Description:
Three copies of one chain form a homotrimer. Chain A is 19% helix and 30% strand.
Amino acid sequence: MAKTNPGRFFEDYAVGETIGHAVPRTIGAGERALYHALYPARHAIYSSDAFAQACGLRASPMDDLAAFHTVFGKTVPDISLNALANLGYAEGRWLRPVWPGDTLRSSSEVIGLKQNSNGKSGVVWVRTTGTNQHGEAVLEYVRWVMVRKREQGSAAPEPVIPDLKPALEAGDLMVPEGLDFSGYDFELAGEPHRWGDYEPGETIDHVDGVTIEEAEHMMATRLWQNTAKVHFDASARPDGRRLIYGGHVISMARALSFNGLANAQMIVGLNAGAHANPCFAGDTVRAWSEVLDKAETDVPGIGALRLRLVATKGGAPGALRGGDGKYLADVLLDLDYWALVPI
Amino acid sequence: MAKTNPGRFFEDYAVGETIGHAVPRTIGAGERALYHALYPARHAIYSSDAFAQACGLRASPMDDLAAFHTVFGKTVPDISLNALANLGYAEGRWLRPVWPGDTLRSSSEVIGLKQNSNGKSGVVWVRTTGTNQHGEAVLEYVRWVMVRKREQGSAAPEPVIPDLKPALEAGDLMVPEGLDFSGYDFELAGEPHRWGDYEPGETIDHVDGVTIEEAEHMMATRLWQNTAKVHFDASARPDGRRLIYGGHVISMARALSFNGLANAQMIVGLNAGAHANPCFAGDTVRAWSEVLDKAETDVPGIGALRLRLVATKGGAPGALRGGDGKYLADVLLDLDYWALVPI
Amino acid sequence: MAKTNPGRFFEDYAVGETIGHAVPRTIGAGERALYHALYPARHAIYSSDAFAQACGLRASPMDDLAAFHTVFGKTVPDISLNALANLGYAEGRWLRPVWPGDTLRSSSEVIGLKQNSNGKSGVVWVRTTGTNQHGEAVLEYVRWVMVRKREQGSAAPEPVIPDLKPALEAGDLMVPEGLDFSGYDFELAGEPHRWGDYEPGETIDHVDGVTIEEAEHMMATRLWQNTAKVHFDASARPDGRRLIYGGHVISMARALSFNGLANAQMIVGLNAGAHANPCFAGDTVRAWSEVLDKAETDVPGIGALRLRLVATKGGAPGALRGGDGKYLADVLLDLDYWALVPI
């Protein structure tokens, strides 16, 4: 048993340390097909090489969230195997497209540590970077998790709490090289709405729902080599239910958001995210979005929308928190991201 | 909510109008693998590049039904989002193979309209064409659906009922360029039966059965970007059951038909089709075929069989309709198609 | 019905006969993605082109077990359609990697026959060879099955029982051309353990478990074009349960064994295998391994470990047989194989 990975405990992290995560992964045509089989994904740049080429890209890149899940999945054995909770995300930036055939690897720098007052656990902040086979960074994001301590009595580290932006600014967003919406075909993309048609404060009900199956969320989660046992082993939780990987809910909600946000083509920034309540097989996932902000990018014709994407298993579009400020019980996900939209 | 697609109602169609459907789609190696994972598909031309090349093709094309589902899926948001029933198919022709890496798009011409006598709905006939990234038509077919009216009192259009062939003739069928069965390897293909071994009137029991799972039919249906909510959302129907996309039953039955029709390699014509009864997860799908007709093509060595493919969830092979002329309750699908077979 | 395959009965086999199996199959990027979606596979050579290239290979090959299942699947219609039991494996050798895009076919030579004393069935031994599109053998193995007789009274053949090795020797193992572990990156591979760190007698608990779903095992089994009806048709067995293809359990257990055997990169030999008890959906599969032997290969830096891989649905690691010598009821699989490991 000494040969298996017990995961790290809170004591095993040191601020400034960089952890190289194992098992690089080549993703391509097969993962793209599976992404479309697992989610009702229809954003045209990820669906069609011809459409992507008409937008100045050399081919249809891997879905931004497929890249995210792949990079994230590699971190699980080192960061969250003994995690009690996935607390938040910040400063997520997609730095360049991931092309079919690219090989991704991940590393994480520990940027913060704070022991909890109960002495049993602590919060670990890491900045994770995904790189391709050329050594180019494709994605980076900060995540913080609550991790068990190995021993309650062990000494607490000096607390370091990183200074994180509440949201990226437009200048932080990277527009993929060559992206050009000047000949953008709105009919082919599926909707006529341009960047100028969206206003902060606007709420969009994405209407459709998908009832979640065990086989699907497990296939998705394995595809990203995420090994957290609660997703796969029905005996891991006292209630005998498998907890659905939060990323499955993110991808499902994003795909559903096509209906109303078909032209919010590419995700380029992740400002924040909360997995508000657990999701289980049998839940019917719906989604709504709120336009939080809008900005121009440094590329003519390409605007950015800051969107709140909320996944629910019930409740009305727009309903997020109760009078106590807590998420409503039907809210599964509250994600704050930036996407590129033709102006 | 104004930004989401409410679908078209009967009043929104005009004869002669052409509707360009959204979201082009590149399909390839991943979709081929998924097709083989979702259906027990074994027709050798679609299973093996080497076999396809020995038949004069440059590679194994995408399964004819994968091409059909992809083209069909794009039409759903414009044609059948508010449909009450999918009534029929006619004059379906596969015009050239779809190769891995091709990008497909669809458009539909409205060729018929007839309001129902109840004033609440009407029938819409469309001729849908799928084209590849070179602008070449790969597939065309006529479909008619019953669509809700937006308002019961709105004026009825002049009825136009298209004149459709009850079945394609041999001269209508397109043999893929280069296809050559002169060196056809029957052992590798799996059965010794040639075109000459089949006779009209013959019934073939395909023996095997597959019990349908929710995860599988949803993955299939999403793969073709078919968005009809009854397939995904357990809360969409009063009975809480998800209706299985008719195309899933078509592909399942066609794949099962390998056992007895292993050499009916390529589908080139769709004469008619009826989804006789709904299919739900838990049903065990079986299939039988009846040879309806046979014809030579204009290519030596390549014959065509006209086949009735019936999918059932019970009942004896050959049993199709009751004394009242209606489909028996266990019949799921009655499909009439032409396939190419070595002579 | 005369056109469908009734399968072979015991009387239909003759020692020395070679059976060419139908339906060649091209496997590639799609099958690789599905393999990673269906199993928690993480061995780096199969996960990453870049890692494989750093180990001297031209790309990431298809998983050894994907090759095995593909070759095996083709044999089912000719060997095991009327089989009562799959009795064993021996002398399995992976002869060269299967690359994405390769087309595989299978043939089997009958090497043994022995009628059972009850006169109703007999044992058939076959040596199956998988070849690629260049006619090169990629895999060979011996399998024996118990097959029904067509008629109880028919004459028994002269018994021929092949002389099979209880285990391959190191000299029998083929190291893939070019494989070179001299620059092997243990951090990227996921674990630090070298060949020298494993000792015969050592038992490794692979810790993690996966609860099996119907949709997943059927997708896997279809992917390899294995047509045995008990895996797909809930009405095929009196208890209404679908029996899970033994190969699904093999792949699941092998993937789970990453945790402790991350560097047992490539399977090159199959010494023996028993499907000890049936597996059904809902079972939670776990795995443990025992190091049976170790050997050097003729390539410097590449060692071989002989491993017993046991899949269970319960019970303690190391528990295999009861006092009566029979497999414990929770044991699903007992597989004896050789894998290549960096020295």
